[in-house]
Every structure is written in structure tokens, then in C-alpha cells.
Specification:
Elements (H helix, E strand, L loop, with lengths): L8 H12 L6 H9 L7 E7 L6 E5 L7 H9 L6 H7 L5 E4 H7 L12 E3 L7 E3 L6 E9 L5 E9 L7 H9 L1 H22 L12 H11 L4 H8 L3 H15 L4 H14 L4
Antiparallel strand pairs: 1-2, 1-7, 3-6, 4-5, 6-7
Length: 273
């Protein structure tokens, strides 16, 4: 049996950072870094599933921005084939599991995957690959129940290995699952509360923005440069640029001109500010 002594020394400092940033937009990145002290992964994404709407991509690491089209395909349609989503729908998305093991219990529906912006590929853990996302990976999932019928799925991926995620790695992550779940629930509740406080009528794609991304968005709409935003929010210019890339991705725009156009339409419809 693994015990707390099985956790690396770096976990203590990194988990403390999670607590320090618990009520800030930086918490998700802190949690990602803490989990990466336990096992070797290449990328982490956090998806929120809901029975009432399509999934929300709450967090992804910087390199995932290179696969913006693929993530959009996933959020739009291919999520409906994903075993983790099917597991959520059946009430079994909980704890630490390999995606390939979830797929054995919740196989993807026998449908024309091309209609879901995906391509059949038996080399993949789930037998297909969402168009625009990289192949050849293995995935470890942490399922977490959230409030009001929602659930979060922390997906940790890396290049496929001969052994795959080992039982020791799964047990090690399992030791901190309660900590990760409590942190993410707290963040989610605060995130929703801030959204409702800032504007209870805000709808659509703008719900995908974190509180910090919304701050950056509003300052951009007021004409501030990245440097000016960094001074206003007391964050680095590099961090501002990361938030800009994230909100561009979530709002489906490529240029600041498109962002201004989207803002004008949203203001007219009463969706922001």
C-alpha cells in the first residue's frame, strides 16, 4: 500500500501554492503543476461536463493552444463520443482512471464518426481521434463531481508508452484526489459566483472566460495595451499575452479587430459588461 510518504517532497510546496492561489485565476495552473510533481505528463486539460449544455474547456496548458481547431471540434461535437463524457452521463465519472479503461466500460456509440469531426483510428485508446487533436497519446483522467449536476474531468496526457500509466502512478494520484477535488470545487463555485456578480445576463461563449480573462477582455475593449493591462492588474506582460491567447481561443477570434466586432455584437445583445 502506498502512503503519504510515497508523495515526492516537491508535492508539499506545490500543493501549498494551490492553497495560496485558491481564490484566484492562477489556481488551475497551480493545480496542474502540483499534479505534475506526481507523475510525468506532457499536457493537462480540465473540462467541465454539464447535462444542460456542451462541455466547457476550463483550462489547458499553453502548448494546447496549437490545437485550437481540434479542441473546438471536441467542444462542438466529438465530446458526445468520448468515453469520459459517456461515463459522466451514466454517473460513473469519479476518481482516477485510465481513459482506455473507461472506454472498455463506456464504448463510443457505433456511429459515423465523420459526422462528429473525428476519424477512426484503432491505434488510439478509444478507437478514434478528434480532427485537429494530436494522436499517439495515453490519458489519465480524474473525475470530480461539481455542484448542480456538473462534473470536472482532469485529463493528463503524454505520448503513448509501452506499459501505459502504471498502477503505482494511478495510486499516487489517487492519494491527492480528494485535495484536487476540494480545490476544484471551491474554484468552480467562486468562478460561477463571480460570473453572476459581474453580469447575471452574460451568455454564450463569454461564459467560457475565467474572471481574469474577462478583466483582460474588458481592458482591451477600453483600448489598453498589454503593458498597460499588466500594470493595471499587477501581472507580467507575458501573463497578459497568455490570457489574451486563451480568450481569443475561447471566443473563436484570431485578431483584435474580430474581438472588437464580437464585443460590439455582445454589447448589443446584452451578453457582456
Amino acid at each position: 500500500m502506498l502512503g503519504l510518504r510515497s508523495l515526492p517532497g516537491s508535492w508539499a510546496a506545490s500543493s501549498a501554492r494551490v492553497l495560496e492561489t485558491l481564490d484566484t485565476p492562477e489556481m488551475l495552473q497551480s493545480l496542474d503543476r502540483a499534479l505534475q510533481t506526481l507523475i510525468e505528463v506532457a499536457e493537462t486539460a480540465i473540462v467541465v461536463y454539464s447535462r444542460a449544455q456542451k462541455p466547457t474547456l476550463m483550462y489547458q496548458c499553453q502548448s494546447s493552444l496549437a490545437y485550437a481547431d481540434g479542441w473546438q471540434n471536441y467542444q462542438d461535437v466529438s465530446y458526445a463520443l468520448n468515453p469520459s463524457y459517456l461515463s459522466f452521463r451514466s454517473g460513473r465519472l469519479s476518481g482516477v482512471q485510465r481513459l482506455r479503461d473507461i472506454a472498455l466500460v463506456d464504448p463510443s456509440p457505433k456511429v459515423d464518426v465523420a459526422r462528429y469531426n473525428a476519424t477512426i483510428d484503432q491505434r488510439e485508446e478509444i478507437g478514434y481521434l478528434t480532427d485537429g487533436l494530436p494522436g499517439g497519446n495515453e490519458e489519465l483522467c480524474i473525475g470530480i463531481d461539481l455542484a448542480c449536476g456538473n462534473a470536472a474531468m482532469i485529463a493528463m496526457t503524454r505520448r503513448r508508452t509501452r506499459k501505459g500509466y502504471t498502477s503505482q502512478e494511478i495510486e499516487r494520484v489517487g492519494l491527492v484526489t480528494d485535495f484536487a477535488a476540494a480545490s476544484l470545487r471551491r474554484y468552480w463555485l467562486n468562478h460561477r459566483r463571480l460570473q453572476q456578480k459581474s453580469n447575471p445576463q452574460r451568455l454564450g461563449k463569454f461564459e467560457l472566460l475565467t474572471a481574469r480573462e474577462l478583466q483582460v477582455f474588458n481592458l482591451l475593449m477600453e483600448g489598453h495595451s498589454s503593458l498597460s493591462i499588466s500594470l493595471h492588474l499587477d501581472i507580467s506582460v507575458a501573463t497578459v499575452k497568455t490570457h489574451r491567447k486563451n480568450l481569443y481561443f475561447k471566443l473563436g477570434v484570431a485578431t483584435q479587430c474580430e474581438l472588437f466586432s464580437l464585443s460590439r455584437r455582445a454589447d448589443t445583445e446584452g451578453h457582456v459588461r
